[in-house]
Design a protein that fits this description.
Layout lengths: L1 H20 L3 E4 L2 E5 H19 L6 H9 L8 H7 L4 H13 L4 H23 L3 H10 L10 H12 L2 H4 L3 H11 L9 H8 L7 H25 L2 H9 L8 H16 L1 H7 L2 H21 L11 H4 L2 H12 L2 H26 L5 E2 L3 E2 L1
Antiparallel strand pairs: 1-2, 3-4
Helix pairs in contact: 1-2, 1-7, 2-6, 6-8, 7-18, 7-19, 10-11, 12-16, 14-16, 14-18, 16-18
Length: 368
């Protein structure tokens, strides 16, 4: 697991470098290249992409490799191949084009998906976060980064919608709905964003919409198993359940991690309201929805709901640094930030070594 720990270590090192460099500008031969933070963010991103793109045996990566190998070569097989894709036809379409137009090497395919997914995440985090490397640390320590090699089709759908989340902030709901429908061709769970984007678009948190959602959520808790059983009896439900057969619902630690930004946002709701930051308002709403889905998945089998929160949890990594900056002052801010760093690190250790025992496996490095 040394690779995963090296990601954490690099994030800490670059965070220290960021503080020392301050607002330094990078010049090469007298030509302005970029800000110091941008260079450090590029180094972090490249390191993450390199190792995750290089893996070959982590989580369900072998299934994606096997699927890529089965894609036929030659455009005369295009129509037949798509007819055999029973889920994620959009993902299958992209994979076919990549293998027939770019490379038949599955390592190149994994690198491509990792590159696109990571870029979508970093693009938003770099632009919106008050502290990029604190956000990057939370992204790793909360284990959200593991979606880059486990459930990569769904996470690709997640981060594409995340990358264009500013459409919701700008009130361009129709364009975002069209995007959701297109992304659902990659993974149909993207459709969960349809009611969310309509219900919470450009809405201040903790208003009547929140409490209506709570009522619906409570009803869902009581009837979740009945509704899930009905869904599993359908053809789509059976296929989805088969793909998540090993899911066991959400553990209490994961709920606790998801609750931290949401609870702090509620405590500092006056600060959130005063600042009138529309993107942060969106982050608070998404954090609340994420927590609701996690709680709901903990009282069900988790087969259907356990993976849905990742559409919303990615916003927490922006929300928490913002709350620490604007909601707390002086020594209290530093203390809470230190507590968050330590507790998230403990969660990272438990999740990676105890709960999952997730070693890094690659054709080039073996199991480490």
């Amino acid at each position: 697991m040394i690779i995963y720990w090296s990601m954490i270590a690099l994030t800490g090192f670059l965070a220290i470098m960021q503080v020392k460099m301050g607002k330094a500008e990078i010049f090469i031969r007298g030509r302005h290249l970029c800000k110091g933070t941008a260079l450090l963010a590029f180094i972090w991103t490249a390191y993450i992409i390199f190792w995750i793109g290089l893996r070959s045996g982590v989580a369900d990566t072998p299934a994606y490799i096997s699927g890529f190998k089965e894609i036929p070569v030659g455009f005369e097989h295009f129509e037949f191949y798509l007819s055999t894709v029973d889920k994620g036809v959009g993902f299958g379409f992209i994979a076919f084009l990549f293998k027939n137009m770019v490379s038949q090497n599955y390592h190149a395919w994994l690198f491509f998906i990792t590159l696109v997914s990571t870029f979508c995440v970093v693009r938003v985090y770099y632009r919106q976060s008050e502290n990029f490397f604190f956000t990057a640390y939370l992204f790793l320590a909360s284990c959200i980064f593991t979606w880059l090699f486990n459930g990569i089709r769904q996470f690709l759908a997640t981060v594409i919608l995340f990358a264009f989340s500013d459409l919701m902030v700008k009130g361009k709901t129709f364009k975002y709905i069209v995007l959701i429908l297109l992304v659902s061709l990659i993974h149909n769970t993207a459709l969960v964003m349809l009611p969310i984007c309509i219900f919470f678009r450009k809405k201040e948190p903790w208003k009547w919409q929140t409490f209506v959602f709570v009522v619906v959520f409570v009803i869902g808790v009581f009837y979740a198993d009945s509704l899930l059983n009905l869904f599993m009896q359908t053809e789509a439900g059976a296929k989805y359940a088969e793909g998540l057969a090993l899911s066991e619902g959400t553990n209490i630690l994961r709920i606790g991690v998801a609750a931290v930004p949401c609870v702090l946002a509620f405590i500092e709701r006056d600060v959130v309201s005063k600042e009138k930051n529309e993107f942060i308002n969106l982050c608070v709403n998404m954090s609340f929805v994420s927590l609701c889905f996690y709680v709901l998945s903990s009282v069900t089998s988790g087969v259907l709901l356990g993976r849905l929160p990742n559409y919303f949890e990615v916003y927490n990594m922006i929300l928490l640094p913002w709350l620490l900056k604007y909601g707390f002052k002086g020594s209290s801010r530093k203390l809470i930030q230190i507590i968050c760093v330590v507790l998230y690190l403990v969660f990272f250790y438990y999740q990676m070594t105890q709960a999952w025992n997730m070693y890094y496996i690659s054709d080039f490095t073996g199991r480490i």
